[in-house]
Amino acid sequence: MNKKLRFNSAAIHGGQKIDPAYGAVMPPIYQTSTYSQTSPGVHKGFEYSRTHNPTREALENSIASIENAKYGLAFGSGLAAIDAIIKLLKPGDEVISTNDLYGGSYRLFTKIFENFGIKFHFVGMGNFDFLSKHVNNKTKLFWVETPTNPMMNVIDIKKISKLAKEYKILLAVDNTFASPYLQQPLNLGADIVMHSATKYLAGHSDVILGTIALNDKVLAEKLYFIQNASGAVCGPMDSFLTLRGIKTLHLRMQRHSENAKKVAEFLESNSKIKTVFWPGLENHPSHKIAKKQMNDFGGMISFIPKGSDFSSSVQIMKKLKIFTIAESLGGVESLVGHPASMTHASIPKEEREKSGVVDSLIRLSVGLEDYRDLIEDLSQAID
Ligand code: P1T
To answer: What is the pTM of this model?
Structure first.
């Protein structure tokens, strides 16, 4: 299919072809580690599944299509995808990252890559002057998570990409919270876009997987090399499940955003709630950028109950009946998390609190249930 497809069609057909063997409409799960060769080096384009696998390739083509990219790569997890991106760097290089980001990304940067001589600066990227002050001739990468996990700050990708281009710094965006349906970072000037596909892309809480998409050929070749050389690839079954998830991404993201709007408005109007963080709310600090940069505001909400502390917030969470207490997000079912003790526990308390991740903060992944049931559930728990 050569015609450039609109997003909803690309989610279903982008980069896909009918299986040449039997005409299967969905790509078969090629559960094989290796491929027969008629003579050494003579084969049908597939030698070994760490290097290439037809089901993974179908997913990689799909992710490239929905991110409007030339190249797509899939990995065994979101963190494996981030790991591959950081391996583009060398000892002595420096990275400037958003200060509010997934705790596991922070842990990978500070506990693994700092040991290999790569330096990370964590800065609030809403303050542009502050960001440019951290740039020096060793800066090789901007790591931007937007919306951020868990404070939902939205970073102006276009603005940062201008600075990145001026100083020849790579700009990588973790697009997990938005998904390509809500925001396409490459179109806004980013060099690399990454996803924890575990979340909205796969969408059904049944897979761990990461993706990268990009346009630059040289950079793509380096990443394919790292993917094969380091070997953190995803299996064919997980590739298949993620591909199946992507086919309904547009429908799910619409409903996640609609439900989150209802829930955010309910929380905002509730007298027992102190602050609600959802970029669709007009009083959210990033609302203006979000409106400009995103097609809608997504399904993730954080909030702080009035007068709450660690234990009273946990009490509220435990009273919820439809929202399940669990790590992760982006599935069809609603989840509730406590960032300070769960997803962001690997960030030291004083660092965490600098970006607003206080002990009383509660994070919701608003699912696809009837929003009235979700609001009733929250209402009884808060009361
Ligand atoms: O879990 P994994 O597929 O390895 O993805 C890591 C990751 C990367 N980037 C962002 C923005 C993320 O939110 C995550 C994973 N996050 C959770 C598990 C969570 O509950 O926040």
So the answer is: 0.98
Q: Residues 11-19: contacts with CB within 8 Å, 24+ apart?
A: 11/62, 11/66, 11/181, 11/246, 11/247, 11/248, 11/249, 11/250, 12/247, 14/61, 14/62, 14/64, 14/65, 14/66, 15/58, 15/60, 15/61, 15/62, 15/64, 15/65, 15/72, 16/58, 16/61, 16/62
Q: Does the beta carbon of 176 lie inside 6 Å of ligand 1?
A: yes
Query: pLDDT tens digits for the chain (383 residues)?
Result: 557 899 999 999 999 999 989 999 999 999 999 999 999 999 999 999 999 999 999 999 999 999 999 999 999 999 999 999 999 999 999 999 999 999 999 999 999 999 999 999 999 988 777 788 889 999 999 999 999 999 999 999 999 999 999 999 999 999 999 999 999 999 999 999 999 999 999 999 999 999 999 999 999 999 999 999 999 999 999 999 999 999 999 999 999 999 999 999 999 999 999 999 999 999 999 999 999 999 999 999 999 999 989 999 999 999 999 999 999 999 999 999 999 999 999 999 999 999 999 999 999 999 999 999 999 999 999 99
Q: Is residue 352 situated within a structural domain? A: yes
**Which amino acid residue places its CA nearest to atom 20 of ligand 1?**
328
Q: Residue 47 Cα, ligand 1 centroid: separation in angstroms? A: 31
**Would you say residue 200 lies in a domain?**
yes
Q: What is the atom index within ligand 1 of the atom nearest the CA of 101?
A: 11
Asked which of 212, 246, 280 is the last residue of a domain, the reply is 246
